[in-house]
# Entry
Amino acid sequence: MTCNRGSVRWLRIGMLAAVLALAVALPDSARSAEQAPYPNRPIRLVVSFSPGGTSDTLARMLSEHLEAAFGQPVVVENRPGASGNLASDLVARAAPDGYTLLQAANGITILPSTHGERAVDPVRAFAPVTKLVTQPILVAINASLPVATLQQLVALAKTEPERLAYATPGVGTTDHLAAAMLFRRANAELLHVPYASNAAEIKDLVQGEVKVAFITLGAVRPFLASGQLRALAVTTPHRVAAFPDVPTVAESGFPGYEVTSWYGVLAPAGTPPEAIDRLHREITRVLQLPSVREKIAALGAVPADSTPEQFSEEIRTLVRFWVPIVEAAGLGLR
# Structure
C-alpha cells in the first residue's frame, strides 16, 4: 500500500486535530481536581514542639476550626527537635502548594544567629501567613524571695554577683535572651540555670530550688493565682490584661525594653498567593471567635492580628534584632 505526499499531509493534520480535541476535552475531567478551589485535599500542620504544650494545644484548636471551614482534614504533626529547626527544615523542603504548613515560635528568628548556616533561614525559606498569638514573658520569682520590684531584684543580684540564679527553658531561647538583655543593661550578674522543659523549670521554681525565672505567662499562671509565685514584670511593651498590676520591664526602670514571644503560621516559599490569602482570611476569622479567644486567654496568650506582609517584615526585623544580642550573650554560631 502506498500513500502520496498529499495523503500523508492530511493524515498528519487529522492526527493533530484529534490530539487537540482530546486536550480540549481533558480539562473537564482529568484536570478538574487541579482546578478545584484551594484547598481540595488534606492539609498538614507541622508543629515544632512536643504534644501537650501551648503550641500543640493552639495547633489542635486551630485545625479543628479550619477543618470545618475548608471541608478538608487538617492534620497536626508534632516534629520537635533542634530548637525548632527540624520542623522548619521539613516544611521548607515541602512542595509550595499550601498543603504543608508550619506553626512556629519566634525562636526561628534567633536560630540564624546561634546556628548559622545549619539554621533554616526564615526570611528566604517561608511565605508567612499570619501571626497567631503573642505571649508575655514574665520575670517571676518564688514567693519566699524578699523583693517586691524588679529594681529590688537587680539590687539584690548586685550584692552577690553570680550567686542569685535565674531559670529559663534553655540556652538561646527567647526567655534566655530576654534575661540576658535585661541583666546586661542593668549591669547585674546572675547565674543562668537552663532547663530542658518548662515543667522541670516550674517544679524547681515553685519548690524554691531556683528563685527567679524568665518564663511565659501561660506556664505559671496557676502558681501566680495560688500565691506560690509572684510576677515582678512583663517583657511586653504593654501590661497584660490578666495581671494589670504587674508593670512592664520598661516601666520598671528600663525604658525601651521589649521582648515578645509569639506563635505563627508559615508556608514554604513560593506558595501561591491565593492559598496564602485563603489561609490568612480563615485563620483571622477563627481568632476572632469568642470561644477561641477564651481558650487563648486561658493559655496566657493574646490573639494577634497581622497581615502576611506585616508578619514577613516582623520576621526580617527580628532576624537582624537578635544578632548583637546573641553575640553579647556569647552564643553566636554554636
Remarks:
- DSSP finds 13 helices and eleven strands in the chain.
